[in-house]
Amino acid sequence: MQFNEDIFTFSKKNTQIYITTNWINLSSDESYIHLLESENKEYFSLKTDKRRKEFLLVRYLRNKFFPGKEIKYTSLGAPYFKDKSFSISISHTTTYIALAVTTDERIGIDIELIQDKIIPLGQKFMHKNEILTLESINESIHYTQFWCAKEALYKWTNISGISFQNDLSIFHENMKNWYGISNRISEGIIPLEMIEFNNHILCYTY
């Protein structure tokens, strides 16, 4: 991991991850982050400060590493660079904003705060075989890892109507090496990078 100003970077093969803290103050920093002319209307149409901060901080990362590249969204809400030069994925928590970029056709990323409230939800997004692989200790971490893995794989799949429980399968080797299978796409086994830092889980495809 590198730390450059207020940005964390991760890399694996031809995939780069850029993460910034949610540092922006709309009352004083809003004009600091340059938006492309085509993005101004979209920004001012956002109804909440939370969405405006997320929008600005994603563009902050874009400006740092991919200046001038316009971010658009598909009908499913998946982001992409208008010039199709790279595939991208975006995730955010109240603390961090993450942008994943790859030269591959597909990419998916998720970042989540580790919280105990994820545990009772596991029955809804995991199937029984996945739950049986969990260790009895650090349950909140393990459930968060599975959620992040499925969310990243869902974004990678980029198809509507996906069931996290039935269409996305996650498996691992001793909670270390992680892989996914998207049953809606016959692409075989998808490697997943799983990182724990600052009480968060980050997972992305590569």
Overview of the structural elements:
The protein has 206 residues and is of the alpha+beta class. It has two domains: 2-107, 4'-phosphopantetheinyl transferase domain (Ribosomal Protein L22, Chain A); 110-205, 4'-phosphopantetheinyl transferase domain (Ribosomal Protein L22, Chain A), CATH 3.90.470.20. It has helices at residues 26-29, 37-45, 49-65, 122-125, 128-131, 139-157; strands at residues 2-4, 7-12, 15-21, 71-73, 79-81, 87-92, 96-102, 109-113, 168-173, 177-182, 190-197, 200-205. The strands form three sheets. It has a five-stranded antiparallel sheet, with helices on one face. The model has no long low-confidence stretch (mean pLDDT 93).
Outline of the structure:
The protein is an alpha+beta fold and 206 residues long. It has helices spanning 26-29, 37-45, 49-65, 122-125, 128-131, 139-157, and strands at residues 2-4, 7-12, 15-21, 71-73, 79-81, 87-92, 96-102, 109-113, 168-173, 177-182, 190-197, 200-205.
